[in-house]
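Methods — Computational structure assignment.
A single polypeptide chain was analysed. Its primary sequence is given first, followed by the predicted tertiary structure written as structure tokens.
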Amino acid sequence: MRFKSTVTRVLACPDNAWILAFSNDECAQIYNSEQKATLTCSPGHPGHSAKGGQINTEGQYVASTGTDGRLNVYKISQGADGPTLKQEGSLKVTTKTSSLANPFFDFSIHWLPNSETLLVSGNKQLGFVSKDENEQW
């Protein structure tokens, strides 16, 4: 894994072989320790930093948060040449961005076990994010 700026956060997923890393770059990166594959969560958070995220317990989805106040969701698929990553959704979940008084504001996310549902902080209410009947985030 290579970044343009200093790595600020690393998460190892206890339920699967993925490692998730963040820096002040626009995109988070994930690494599969079994397949020795690195994937970039792109498009990321243009003009902002990817600050946090998590991979669901099944290793099917990764979500990233950024200083732009957005939550990006990506689908991890296994192809003939190894794992691939495709963005499935990008949601504005908070109005706080890096342009406000606290440039280090971070909101957190957590996948509910064995599901495609995320808990999301960043507003005055706890948010639940999942796919709708049209399979859109």
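Note: The two ends are 28 Å apart (CA to CA).
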